[in-house]
Amino acid sequence: MANKQTSVSFTWADARWLFLKLCITLFLVTVVWVITYRWIDPPVTLHMLSKRSEPSPKNQKIEEIQYKFVELEDMSVQLPLAVIAAEDQLFLTHNGFDFNAIKQAFQRNMSSKKTVGGSTISQQVAKNVFLWHGRSYIRKAVEMYFTFLIEVLWGKERIMEVYLNIAEMGDHVFGVHAASRKYFKCEPQQVGRQQAALLAAVLPNPIRYSVAKPSGYTLRRRRNIARNMSRLGGSEYVQKWLN
């Protein structure tokens, strides 16, 4: 008796079910990833890995990444205050997104050849910790997804702690520990108001702007940040939040 050949048909229902399983798997993997970094400090970020393979623009040599994670309680309160004053003054009140800043950045980008960012501190953490290097609408959508996750699963204190540790503050220099040791010869807990404002002043482009040799623009930006730190309420603004 001849064997009957069985035909395998792949229907749209099968495709939808496969897609649904893929989405659920990706969701669970990303949630576990984010929860893991809620309790375990990132040993390295994707942005650091991309920088590790790039030569320094100063000497065209591959340099070692300078990075050491420190807890928020081991930092001067001037550091979170400075980056809030410089980068995201609504950090404590928004849900991860500053839609007015995003709208203004979009309008400036449409009317100018220069690209202006509108990212919050939460968005910067999401893209620098979890995402690949580059610019695309897909990457932006994934960034928004991870921003939502860390806002829900981490909270503001952990987001700030990670940001101050993974932010690039010089060529191959990441985080306040490496920056304070390199530029000020002190520990993060000893960083003063003007020093914190100077570190925050170079955050938009730490390769172009230098902490070691600040330009006139960088010094003006430091003064503006220091004024904003006072307007926010000074160190008490951060201490009330942390307590």
UniProtKB/TrEMBL annotation:
Give the organism the record lists: Rufibacter immobilis
Give the Enzyme Commission number: 2.4.99.28
The transmembrane segments are 18-40
GO BP terms: namely: cell wall organization; peptidoglycan biosynthetic process; regulation of cell shape
List the lineage, top down: Bacteria, Pseudomonadati, Bacteroidota, Cytophagia, Cytophagales
**Role noted for this protein:** Peptidoglycan polymerase that catalyzes glycan chain elongation from lipid-linked precursors.
Name of the molecule in the record? Biosynthetic peptidoglycan transglycosylase
The answer to whether keyword Ligase applies is no
Keyword presence, NAD: no
Membrane topology value: Single-pass membrane protein
